[in-house]
């Protein structure tokens, strides 16, 4: 992704409009990061709630089984077989809740936090690299503009090449 962006942006000229676009994209990325962070927190609360609900359902199912699960006449009088069916359904619902929690946690939450922490961080790093390159360019431009008009072109080119990073 980063390489594609560099290829795309390498063809652009630096202009006020370009800088405004960068600023706008940074603001969008920051908004996305904030919204993603809030959504992640919501996912965490929901999965924690599912875990708690599943534990409560399992405890209630155990209570039903212990109260009405015996073959004795008291259990039969209070509808023991129906209570056992209800307990089985509660445990099945718990299995589905656990599956839902797992899917949300691993499929949604993990990917979301990775996106907000890694991908959006790459945007900040790209901005730092842009600002650094811009500072180097401005410094070289200022040196070039400060040369007297009588300075020969070869000296100016040699000076520029000496100050440009990555050149010999």
TrEMBL record:
GO terms for molecular function: GTPase activator activity; metal ion binding. Pfam families: BAR_3. Residues 12-154 form the BAR domain. GO terms for cellular component: cytoplasm. Keywords: Metal-binding, Zinc. InterPro entries: ACAP1/2/3-like (IPR045258), AH/BAR_dom_sf (IPR027267), BAR_dom (IPR004148). This is BAR domain-containing protein. The lineage of its organism: Eukaryota, Viridiplantae, Streptophyta, Embryophyta, Tracheophyta.
